[in-house]
Amino acid sequence: MKQCSKWMFAISVILTVALAGCSSKPSDTQANSAASQPDSGVTAAQGTVSGEISFVTDDEEFTGRSIGNAQGYYYVDRGGGIAANLRYIDYASKQDIFLSSRPEGDHFSPEDESYVASVAGSGVVFPLGDTLYLVRSGAPDYLNDYGSEALAAIFTMNLNGSERQELYLGSASETFLSTIAADDENLYLVSVDTQTENDVPVQRRCLVQVNRKTGEKKTLTELTDSAWMIGASGNYLVFHSIYAETGSETTAPAMTHEIFVYRFDTKSLSVVKSWPQEQMLTVKVYADTLVTADAVSKTLTVQDLESAETKNTFSLAEHMPTQEAKLWFEECRDGKFMFWDYEHETLSAIDLETGEWKTVTLTYQDPEKQEARPVEIYAETETDFLVCYDKQTVMKQSINLAGVLDQSESVQPCFALIAKEDYWNSVPNFQKITFNN
Question: What is the top-level taxon of the source organism (predicted)?
């Protein structure tokens, strides 16, 4: 079948977390035990949610996508080095601009609000209220080359990019994963501390909270060593882990997936779903539910997170006519679970309450893969989606690894706003966004 970059990304994630987490599968008891052991030297947090908790990034690692707000969408535009620029898509003017008070200024100098000296590892930016947050995941291996610019960090600034301040700076052994949740007082992140034991690097993952005003970091619980956050809802943070079961000299280790939750009220971890790799499940968190698509049995299950009760089960067979047991471009939007039908080159969407189907025929021809792709949703407001409706090759300037301003060709998403009603009815009324280089 046709290949895609998402497939390569998924494989890389599986390999990364599998190699990092080669212990045997923990039981609920082991998970709860981990939750009761805070990081030594760090005060255990109270573990209460302040206001509504929400997910502020994409649920896949290191895509760079995050939430916007009603006025626009922010993103990190990185070149060939560790430096980057903050960009802003203004919904009112339909402009994609540098987040700078000087439209005609030098956007590649430290004096410009949009310039970021380092997003070593990766960078993601998101608005919360009247504050914009920039999280750098960090790359401590490059500490000798870049000093503190290689460390994990969190920055705050005004929504226009002004008055940027360092809220938190990590240690020489710490990195952050890129999936993040927040409430009114704190950010919630997965912190990875890597120490060398007997000449072997050993990772220790913890769920941490960072106070949005003071930058104080507290450890809530130790996580399994291959866990990443995939969602937030009510009183829960939801995680995915992949474990490599013990193999033999002639057989590869079996891979086991688990979904587990952290409960703020009990300060505990518990497993809510487990399956072998060959079962090919896709799990998404949507509102207060866990949405599970089984590509082998071709069924969709909607499960209440609080009670674990199954709310709905639907067949996907009608829209998965081939034997291919893999879902592509899957996500939940507007109360629907969506996935890409390669055979018919359309998006299929099923309502999580009624089971009613919608087929979205909006596509574009990917210039790199030379194949049809769905018009992808990046963000949304109450009435509109921000989508990538095409891709184009443009000449862009950036700072390279040598710290020199360079110009090169780059594939840039073509963004547009589209009314949700038009999107679901496959009406290409794109309100195109102008990219300002």
Answer: Bacteria
